[in-house]
Amino acid sequence: MRGVVTAQQQGRTLWLQEGDRGVRVASEQAGALLPGDVVEVVGFADHGGYAPHLNDATFRKVAAGA
After folding, report:
1. pLDDT in single tens digits along all 66 residues of the chain
2. Antiparallel, parallel or unpaired: β 53-63 and 21-26
3. Which end of the chain has less neighbouring CB within 10 Å, N or C?
4. Which residues contact 55 (CB under 8 A, 6 or more apart)?
């Protein structure tokens, strides 16, 4: 999926906004992201809890945020 970073705990979790939906992404990948950065992520979908999230994900920054 592709989304805009809203927050990150580096090496643990990042949160993305895709349209009007938010997604939590669990990723141990190193690399600092800033709010507004656009990333593509691939991981294993899990629909448990209050919101969908991806586990064991990797990401690639495709654009810097404003």
Report:
1. 999 999 999 999 999 998 898 899 999 999 999 999 999 999 999 876 777 789 999 999 999 987
2. parallel
3. C
4. 26, 43, 44, 46
